[in-house]
Design goal:
The protein has 418 residues and is an alpha/beta fold. It has 2 domains: 273 residues, 3-Layer(aba) Sandwich (Rossmann fold); 81 residues, formyl-coa transferase, domain 3 (2-Layer Sandwich). The chain contains 17 helices and 11 strands. The strands form 3 sheets. Strands 3-2-1-4-5-6 form a 6-stranded parallel beta sheet, sandwiched between helices. A 3-stranded antiparallel beta sheet has the order 7-8-9, covered by helices on one side. A hairpin with a 3-residue loop joins strand 10 and strand 11. The longest helix is centred in the middle third of the chain and has 22 residues. The chain is elongated and about 85 Å long. It starts with 7 loop residues before the first strand and ends in a 12-residue tail after the last helix. 37% of the residues are buried.
């Protein structure tokens, strides 16, 4: 039995933040019923398409293990079916623009009236305040959450990160909130509102930068290898931003990702200098202590780089790890996709799709010993429409046919069960 087996999720999410959340719940065993517009579906089905007439990787990698039902919620029969779904499910998840469900006639009060035990979970761009009614996207969240202003080099513009910390990061937060609400329902018997704002999620991940903003009131941030005569947390390139200096140094090969990230901890200085052929710097008072090295970190990393340039990043990592020196190679997406160890742990998974064929996707980032997360294919548009009406809502064959004829489910040709 899986961790969330028996839990039904009514999934009104699209694009990335919401689908990340519901996919995690599906991997944990919840029955996720994805509600999509007839003939269109989640907009990402048709975005960044690489194979004609096949769901994009954008969609397939965010919607595995779910069931899809097509439903026109503006149609009266469609609205009746939605009401029955709300009554039958444990959680409703949405990431519409602010107020969208309210305008459909389903504000929180109405949903709670229909099903007092349901958890109503939402991803929003911003919490209450001047921007709460604004739409938001990944990079907007990174900018308003403080990540962009602290990313990049001090002589360049703010930068967003390639990691989707706004979208997928907030989806993770929302999933955590939903599980907490379901746990509380065991004792309270009631559902509740769960909201996760993307700005809040990004700031939560950038907390060390907020820490540094406050430290500026008491003096410069001396661990940053940049001009510290500032009143705002600076952009610091590849500096670790913590107590242990770190930097990405080049390795043998000369490719765009032939780098390794190295960290200079006090116990590791002697090991570094012995490897680099500079043993005289181990006890030299101008180099031997963290305080002495701090003003010339650029020179420290230059010395280390002269050594790493004689090794591949894998060779450097093996040598440094054998000496208990923290480091990590800069891995490209190609290297990650080809890494057998990540396949073995389920971090990268190969999935077979009915129209696309085999493709790679990410697996469950959290491993439970008694609830294995087996990644399955994403659903075709409306693939489970009749299955859900018959098995979840208990409609009769006559009622299902009437729903098709009403137009609530889209074109009858979309039927998947004879």
């Amino acid at each position: 039995m899986k961790a969330l087996e028996g839990i039904k999720i009514l999934d009104f999410t699209h694009v990335q933040s919401g689908p990340t959340c519901t996919q995690l719940l599906a991997w944990l065993g919840a029955d996720v019923i994805k509600v999509e517009r007839p003939g269109i579906g989640d907009i990402t089905r048709g975005q960044l398409v690489d194979i004609p007439d096949v769901d994009s990787l954008y969609f397939t990698m965010l919607n595995s293990n779910k069931r899809s039902i097509t439903l026109d919620t503006k149609n009266e029969t469609g609205k009746e079916i939605l009401i029955r779904l709300i009554k039958s499910c444990d959680v409703l998840v949405e990431n519409f623009a602010p107020g969208a469900l309210d305008r459909m006639g389903f504000p929180w009060e109405r949903i709670q009236e229909l099903n007092p035990r349901i958890t109503y979970a939402s991803v929003k761009g911003f919490g209450p305040g001047p921007y709460e009614d604004c739409k938001v996207y990944e990079n907007v969240a990174q900018c308003t959450g403080g990540a962009a202003s602290t990313t990049g080099f001090d002589d360049g513009p703010p930068l967003v990160t390639g990691a989707q910390i706004g979208d997928s990061g907030t989806g993770l937060n929302l999933a955590f909130g939903i599980v907490a609400a379901l746990f509380q329902r065991v004792t309270s018997g009631r559902g509740q509102r769960v909201q996760a704002a993307m700005q809040d999620g990004v700031l939560n991940l950038a907390r060390v930068k907020l820490r540094d903003q406050q430290r500026l009131a008491h003096g410069p941030l001396t661990e940053y290898p940049v001009n510290t005569d500032v009143d705002e947390t600076p952009r610091a390139g590849n500096a670790s931003g913590g107590g242990q200096p770190g930097w990405a140094v080049r390795t043998k090969g000369g490719g765009p990702n032939d780098y390794i990230y190295v960290i200079i901890q006090p116990p590791g200085w002697a090991n570094y200098m012995e490897l680099c052929g500079r043993p005289e710097l181990v006890d030299d008072p101008e180099w031997s202590t963290p305080a002495a090295r701090l003003p010339k970190l650029d020179k420290c990393f230059k010395i280390i780089e002269e050594w790493t340039l004689t090794k591949t990043k894998r060779e450097a990592m093996d040598i440094l790890n054998a000496r208990d020196i923290p480091c990590g190679p800069i891995l490209s997406m190609k290297e990650i996709a080809d890494e057998p160890a990540l396949r073995n742990t389920g971090t990268v998974v190969e999935v077979d799709h009915p129209t696309r064929g085999k493709y790679l996707t990410v697996g469950m980032p959290v491993k439970l010993s008694d609830s294995e997360a087996k990644v399955q294919s994403s659903p075709l548009l409306g693939e489970h429409t009749e299955e859900i009406l018959l098995d979840v809502l208990g409609l009769s064959r006559e009622e299902v046919n009437a729903a098709w004829n009403s137009g609530a489910l889209g074109e009858p040709a979309a039927k998947t069960i004879d």
